[in-house]
Amino acid sequence: MIRIPCPFCGERDHSEFTYGGDASIEYPPLDAPPEQWLRAVFERENVRGMQAETWHHANGCRLWLVVERDTLTHEIRSVRPAHAGIAQALEEGR
């Protein structure tokens, strides 16, 4: 079982979240050729070790988070809001 420390709701079971994928992927523009979308969506590296991933806290605050997680041990190194404006608001509120 993976426990994800949500910055808004506290530590929660991973079953409250929906996995969104590799956070380092830069998606092409909407009008890009299908080949570019094929590569971005389906042709990805299977990272062994630390990876930045997106997770949606579907059964909690409903925000998207970037979770830095080891794919071998499931150790979580960091969690932050995926949206820069929310991350900035959290920093200013400290």
Commentary on this structure:
The protein is α+β, with helices and mostly antiparallel strands. The protein has a single domain, classed as Folate-binding superfamily (Folate-binding fold, 2-Layer Sandwich). Helix content is 19%, strand content 35%. It is built from two helices and six strands, in the order βββαβββα. It has helices spanning 34-42, 84-92, and strands spanning 3-6, 10-13, 18-22, 50-56, 64-70, 76-81. Strands 3-4-5-6 form a four-stranded antiparallel β-sheet. The protein is globular, with a radius of gyration of 15 Å.
Which keywords apply here?
two-stranded antiparallel sheet, Folate-binding fold, alpha+beta, 94 residues, 19% helix, 6 strands, 2 helices, 4-stranded antiparallel sheet
Structural class determined from secondary elements: alpha+beta
* Top CATH class: Alpha Beta
How many structural domains can be distinguished in the coordinates? 1
N→C terminal distance: 31 Å
What name goes with the CATH superfamily?
A: Folate-binding superfamily
Task: Please give the number of β-strands.
Answer: 6
CATH architecture: 2-Layer Sandwich
Query: What would you call the shape?
Result: globular
Question: What's the short story on this structure?
Answer:
The chain is α+β, with helices and mostly antiparallel strands.
